[in-house]
Design goal:
The protein has one domain. Helices cover 22% and strands 26% of the residues. It has 7 helices and 12 strands. Helix 6 crosses helix 7.
Amino acid sequence: MSFMKYLPTFLKSRNLWLGFLIVLLIGCEVTEPILNPDYTGQKGQITDVQGNVYKTIGIGSQIWMAENLKTTKLNDGTIIPNVTADTNWTWYITPGYCWYNNDSISFRNTYGPLYNCYAVSTGLLCPTGWHVPDKSEWETLAKFLGGTDVAGGKLKDYYTSLWNDNLCIVNNYGFAALPGGRKLIRNYKGEFKDMKYGGYWWTSTWKDDFTLYSVSMYHDNTILNLFESSKRYGYSVRCIKDEN
């Protein structure tokens, strides 16, 4: 008698069954959150200057937004320009954003905008009392979760079908990272890439005049990547609460 008849219906679908087997083979962790120190698992919400409401989650000693930032204004009310032309994006030296594929209808509510580095560098992109995390704050998050080799798997959203193939995704800390893709500029030509395959987020830490540190997670592994990125790209933003 096949044991398949005893499995829940959702495991019988081809993609999720394949994902389940891969989890067993490569050891993607599926566990409940560890409820310490104090803020771990603490849920709440925050509202930005435009009235967008975000879920928040405590992980370790940090409190993060559990959604990508969606604002198109700085927290002082300044409007951030929507930059759609590749040539303008390449040479823009003031805050700007775009939607993936320049399509706000399809991508705004789920993923939020892709911001340029100058929006991040204003220090005014997140709601008051919150900020774009620096490299060390992402490192602190990864360390709490067991290191960069496994942290990505623990942060990606398990409860949606947005990640391609739904592999190595457990969301056991409520962070709900999504694969919102990125905007690339190569030889002055723009390209939107990696929707459903990868999520990319700015840090606020510059390496030099041309490079910032960034974070990525991919659909097919558990790694949280901390890497150096061209300032010409467009990435998502997650905000972290200021320390008291």
